[in-house]
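Q: A reviewer asked whether we had any structural model of the full assembly, not just the individual parts. We don't, so I'm hoping you can provide one. Inputs are below.
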Amino acid sequence: MEATQVGIIGAGPAGLMLSHLLHRQGIASVVLERRSRDYIERRVRAGVLEQGSTDLLASTGVGERMMREGLVHDGIKLRFAGEEHRIDFRRLTGKGITVYGQQEVVKDLIQQRLADGGEIWFEAEATAVDGIEDDQPRIACRRNGEDTTLACEFVAGCDGSHGVSRAGLVAKSFERSYPFSWLGILAKTPPASDELIYAYHDRGFALHSMRSPEISRLYLQVDAADTMDAWPEARIWDELRLRLAEPGLQAGEIIEAGITPMRSMVTEPMQHGRLFLAGDAAHIVPATGAKGMNLALADVRVLAEALAAWYRSKSRDLLDRYSERCLRRVWRAEHFSAWMTALLHRDPAGDPFDHKLRLSYLRYVVTSEAAATTLAENYVGFENA
Ligand code: APR
Ligand code: PHB
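A: Here is a predicted structure for the entire assembly that you could use as a starting point for your response.
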């Protein structure tokens, strides 16, 4: 049996950043990740960092490549009914966002952890968490085809939406599913716009994003039951052209494609005994608000601070307040993400009245300074939630 101070399940942004922050406080951890390093470094996920996230990466020494390669945006474009409007984040809030792929954040954190002598067990799947109500938590795990146990003082469940750690909680789950999904592609074509385009069309939502000056990231609202079989490449490009109404959009080689269901979920509380959940393990947001990775990073910042206080003074105060401190921010992001989703997606069960209401609301958002500020301050990250 191996032992460490904090056993972390999952090497996504939450788990890796937590391990990094703990190391900076002199606290040892082991990260268990069921996939290979290669797999998680290639897995295409979210791509928008709020100022609070970029500050955290930069101030803890893992932001160098992000600052060099990340694309700083001062606003977004909204398109609907043949019109284009810009929401100027910088003017409305004084802040911008940085477009930098989640797998790049993951690569940078892995590199730093390994350079610092950190322990990440790849292809090690946690199968159960025990002992969180007494002072001897244990993570059962399958590694290199063998069953082994990691003994620790605390367990951080950073194992995403399909992880095992949630089973250890005595908690209530609040959930919503949506009658549509997102089909996302990564394509070898230069972005046709220098800013993100969120488009509402009567055929459904589309989003134009990017990863670099050569690579675009594009999304389409599709039916919840759709599979990729229904979406040959030509259909994807036709539909993107139609909904985005972007003449500059050129079809290019599709490097990656997949369909992601849209879901909202919050677990309350996010902790039990010596188990603490962070990131997608504790809450899911539909991607329309670009909040997932930011929530994950913000959670572990709070958790690392609480664990550091415990190891410094053996005071449980901050640990006991972990969930409460996170949930206000989490619910603000949940509301914003559900609001953006309702604003920009066609409801398959909706009627023409519904469509007209949505257009009116969009027009309000782009003409009222108050409404535009509501969108902007939530998108860049509302600090006082
Ligand atoms: N044992 C070990 N590792 C596991 C287990 C398990 N039983 N179950 C899941 N994992 C791993 C997954 O393979 C994944 O690498 O946990 C990791 C969880 O990482 P993420 O899903 O990236 O979650 P998180 O770090 O919370 O980051 C949230 O991810 O899905 C996006 O939109 C979301 O941007 C947000 C971000
Ligand atoms: C992305 O670039 O992957 C992205 C951007 C904005 C979103 C969701 C995803 O709202």
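A: Points you may want to mention in the reply: Residues 129 and 139 are 5 Å apart (CA to CA). The mean pLDDT is 96.
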